[in-house]
Amino acid sequence: MKIKSQTKRKWRNRFIFVAVVAVGIAAWFIYINSFTIYDHSHLTHRNDFGPVRPFEPMAGTEVPGMVRAAENAYLALYIDEYTTNIAIFDKRNGHTWDSSPRGADSDPIANPFERNTMRSHVGFRFFDEGRRVLTRWLYQDSIVHEQFEIFSIPNGVRLQYSIGNMDIGIDALPFFLEYEYFQYRIMGPAMERAADGDTSDRDLLRRLWHQSRLETHEGFMQMTDAIRDSRINTNSMLDLFYRYGWTIYDTIAANEAADVYVELEFDVFSLSLEFVLDGDRLIVNLPISEFTTESPAQLFDIQLMQFFGAGGTDADGFILVPSGSGGIINFNNGGHREDPFRSAVYGMDFMTTSIRPQVTQPVRLPVFGIQNDGAAILAHVYNGRALATVNADVSGRTNSYNYAWFSFMLRTSQSLNMDGIPGASGDLTVVQEESYMGDITVIYHFLAGDNPGVGEMAQAYQQFLVEQGALTPLDGPGDRTFYLDVVGGIGARDHFVGVPFNTIETLTTLNDANRFVDILNAQGIDAIQMQLHGWFNRGTNHDVAKNIRMMGDIGNQRQIQELDRRLRAAGGGLNPVVNFQTFLWISTTRWTGRNINASFEVARDLSGTHGFRHGGNREALAYRMMGMWHDWRFIVHPGVLPFHIDDFLPAYERRVGIDNLALSDLGDTIYESFHRRCAVNRESSRHIVEEQIGRLYNQIPNLVVFGGNDYSFAYASHLVGVPIEADMFYIIDYEVPFFPMVVHGFIEFAGNTANQREHYDHLSVLLSSMTTGASPRYTFTAQPTRNAQFTPHMRLYSTHYVNWMAPAIEHYRVFNDVYRYLRGERIVDFEILAGSQLNIGATSQVTVTVFSDGTRIYVNNTYEPFEADGVIIPARWFEVRGGAR
Q1: What pLDDT digit, counting tens, does each position of 433-470 carry?
Q2: Distance of CA 273 to the CA centre of its chain
Q3: Nearest to 280 by CA among 452, 23, 538
Q4: HSE of 147 in the Cβ direction (CA atoms, 13 Å)?
C-alpha cells in the first residue's frame, strides 16, 4: 500500500507540473497575442487616374521624333514609342523638358552603363535569394528587348514594363517548341530575313534546332546541346529570339506545353509607370503594389526620373536643394570634385544607425528645383515622402549633365556582426520582410514667366500647399511673436555621503516665468509664445506621455492656467512641451515603469534590439552611458502612438486644462519599427503621426510645432526650430531662405534659439532674422546654468536670463519695427547681390528679400558698405525700401 501511495503522489506531482507549465505557456501565448497596433491601412494612398485603353497618339509636332500623348491649356506630353522617353512641351514659353538628355549617346564622359541609366525612367536595386544587392535599369533590362507596352489614360499615359530576362542566360529559351509554333513564331521571321538577303538567322536556327527524337516529345523542335556548351551560341540565340519579340513569359508557356520543369534562376519584375498632366503640373506615379516579381527577390530602393530636366555643360542654370533653409548649386560649378548632394527627407533613420550628425539639418520640405536656360521646374514628393532622398549632382563626375532627382528606400537592411562564432567571422545581412506598398508620386510644376527663379519656385510649392489646405494666410500687420523657451526641471545626478543617485534639478519655476514676462512687458514686448520644457514626468526628457504627473517644484495647474491667461490676453500663450515619440529609458525599469511595456511598445530594429536615441551633444558623449541616463531615450513604436494619444488627451484636459501645446517631436522626426509581428515603415509612420497631430489639433487648437516638417503645416499655429540657414555641403554655392519663403505670411516661425548657437554674434543673428523673417527666439533659465554642469544638459550652459535679457530685447525691438508691417505678406523673391560662396567659408553676402507689398529689405553681411539699386547699405547692417509702411 505504501508503494502504491508513493506512485500516486509521483504521478500527481508530474501532472501538476505539466499543468502548471501548460497554463504558463497558454498565458504567455495569450499575453503575446493581446498586443495590437493601430490599423493604419486606410492611410496608405493609391492613385486612380481612370480607365486604361490602347495607346492613341494625338496630332502634334512640337517635339521631333515623338508623338503627342496628352495635352491641356498649359502643357503637352510627348512620348517616344520606341524608347518610352517622354518630353513636356510648355506652351507658355516654348521650352521642352526631356526625361532623357538628347545628347546622352554622344556624352564624352559617360561610359556605356551610365548612358543606359541616362535613358531610363527608373533604376532599382534588390536583394536576391543570397542577399546580394543587384541593380536593374529600364533601358538595358527592358526597353532594348522591347518588353514594354504603352497605354492611354485620361490626360496621360501608362507604361507597363517587364524587366530582367537578359540575365538568366539560356534558361530564357525553351528546351522544346511545338513544330508548327516554332515555324510560325521563330523560323517564319528568319525566312523573311533570308528572302531579303540576310540568311544568318535561318542558318543559325537550322544548325542549332532539330526535331526531337524523344518519344515523349514527338512533334517538337529541340535545342541542341551546342547552345548550352558555347557562350557564343547562347548569346547569338538569345539575341535572335529577343529580336523576334520573345519574352520570358513565352518561355514559361512553352515549357508548360512541353511538360518540362525548369528551375529558372532569375529575377523578372513587372513595373507600371504613369504620367498625367494636371494643369501646369506633371504627375509621375509609380504604384509599388504593381511592382511585382515571382522570384524571391526583395525590392530595395528606387531611383526615379533621374535625368528629367537635366542641363548640359552648355546650359546656364542652377539646382535648388532643400539643404537647411535652401541651397543653390550652380550648373557646371566644378563640384564634381566634392561629394554629390544627398539628404534624406525628414532626416536620418535612427532605427538603422545611432550615429547622430552634428552639423546637418533634416530636410523639412521634400522638394528640389531646376532652372535650365531661362525655364524652371519645381518638383516635390506627394506620396512616399518619408521614404525619399533628395539627390543632386553637377557635370563632370560620371556624365556631362547637371541633374537632380528623388530616390526612395522601400526596404531597410541591416548588417549584424557575427564575430565570436567559433570558426566563422563576418556580417549577416538582415532584410526587412515587408516593404511599403502604396504609391510613389512626384509632382513637377512647370513655371511660367521670363527666367523664373527661387521666388517662383517657392510660390509654386506654396500655392500647392494652399490648395491642399495646409497653409492659410495670416491677418494683416501686427506685432511679431517673441518666442521664449523656458526650462523647468532637468535630470541630474547628485551624491549623498559619496553615493550617487538620480534626481531632478529645477532651473526655472512658473513664478520665475512670470518674472520674465514682467521684464519683457516693461520693454514693450507683449506677444510672447512661451514654450515650457520639463514641467511633468521627470523633466525635459520625460516618461511616456500617456499620463501626466506635474512636478510640484515647477508649479501647479492653477499657476499654468493663470500664466496662460496672462500671455493670451497680450496675444501670446503658454505652451507646455511634450515628446510623444521618445521617453526616458529608466521608465521601463522594474521600480519606475508604471505606464510602458518595453516588450511591445518600444520600436525595434531589424536585429530585435530596442530603438533608442540620445541628445548627441559632444559634452555628454564624453561620459559613460549610464552616467548620462537622462539623455538616453527609447523610441515609441509608431503603431502604439494613437493609443498613447488616447490616454494623453483626457489627462491633459484634466491635469492642465489649457488650449495650447508644444509638440517637440511629432513635427520634427519620423521613426519606424521592425517588430516581427507588427512592423511599421517610415511612410506609414508619417501617416500615423500626421493623423495624431490632427487629433491633437481638434482638441487643442493652438499648437506650436518644433522642426516644421511639411506634414505639420495644416495644424501648426507656430513653427519653431525651422531651418533658416543652409548646411555647408561643399557642392552648394549659395544659401537661400527657401523654407521661410514658403511659409512666411501663412505661419509665424522662428529658428533655433539664438543663445544656444555654437558661435553667437548678435549682429549675425539679427541680420539672419532680417533676411528670412524668422522671429527672435531665446531660451531662459532662472537659476545660474552652472547647475547644468556635468549633466547631459550642458547645452543649456548659456541660458541664464540675466545674461540674455538685454540682447533679446534689442533683437526683438529692431526686428519688430520692420516686420510688424509684413506679418501677412509673402516673400516673392530673393536675390544675392554680392558675396562669397558657402563652400569657401562663412556666408558673407549682400542680399535683398522682396515682399508681396513691394517692400525690399537689403542686408549687407560683409564688412564694407555696398550700393545696390541706388541704396547704400552700411557694413553689417540692413536697409528697408518700398512697401506701405
Answers
A1: 788 899 999 999 999 988 999 999 999 999 999 999 99
A2: 21
A3: 452
A4: 26
Give Cα separations from 376 to 71, 324, 389, 472, 638 (angstroms).
Answer: 19, 21, 21, 26, 38
Q: What is the DSSP string of 112-124?
A: HHHHHHHT-SEEE
Distance of CA 483 to the CA centre of its chain: 28
Q: Where are the domains of the chain?
A: 53-166+269-465, 175-255, 826-885
Q: Do domains 53-166+269-465 and 826-885 have the same CATH topology?
A: no
Question: How far is Cα 575 from Cα 573, in angstroms, rounded to an integer?
Answer: 6
Query: Residue 413 in 3-state DSSP?
Result: strand
CATH of domain 53-166+269-465: 2.70.98
CA 488 to CA 539: how far, in whole Å?
7
- The set of cell numbers assigned to 341 is 548632394
Write the CB contacts of 678 (distance below 8 Å, at least 6 apart in sequence): 35, 36, 37, 637, 639
Q: How far apart are CA 767 and CA 779, in angstroms?
A: 19
Please, what's the largest Cα pairwise distance for the chain? 119
pLDDT digits over 496-516, tens only?
A: 677 766 677 888 999 999 999
The phi and psi torsions of 6 (rounded to 5 degrees) equal -65, -40
Percent of the chain with pLDDT over 90: 58
C-alpha cell at 551: 512636478
Contact 723, 325 (CB under 8 A): yes
Q: Give 235's Cβ-side CA count (13 Å radius).
A: 3
Q: What pairs with residue 494 in β-bridges? A: 501
> Which three three-digit cell numbers place residue 767?
541680420
Cα–Cα distances (Å) from 727 to 328, 484, 721, 730, 838, in that order, read: 11, 25, 15, 9, 9
**Topology given in CATH for the domain delimited by 826-885:** Immunoglobulin-like (2.60.40)
User: Which triple of cell numbers denotes residue 397?
Assistant: 563626375
- The phi, psi pair for 876, rounded to 5°, reads 55, 45
Q: What share of the chain is helix, strand, coil (3-state, %, to 5)?
A: 30, 30, 40
In single-letter form, the type of residue at position 694 comes to: G
Cell reading at 637: 513604436
The DSSP annotation for 344-365 comes to EBTS--TTT--PPPSSPPPB-S
User: Comparing 365-379, 494-508, 801-815, which segment has the lowest mean pLDDT?
Assistant: 494-508
Name the pairing type of β-strands 702-706 and 660-663.
Answer: parallel
CB atoms within 10 A of CB 413: 17
- Please say whether the beta carbons of 572 and 529 come within 8 A: yes
Residue 335 falls in which region: left (phi positive, over 0), alpha (psi -120 to 50) or beta: alpha
Q: At what angle do helices 510-522 and 801-819 cross, to 10 degrees?
A: 50
Nearest to 477 by CA among 46, 865, 853, 882: 853
- Give the integer Cα–Cα distance in Å for 252 and 248: 6
Cα 106 to Cα 501: distance, rounded to the nearest angstrom: 71
Cβ neighbours around 53 below 10 Å, total:
11
Q: Which grid coordinates belong to 200?
A: 544568318
C-alpha radius of gyration, the chain, whole number: 32
Strand, coil or helix: 786: helix
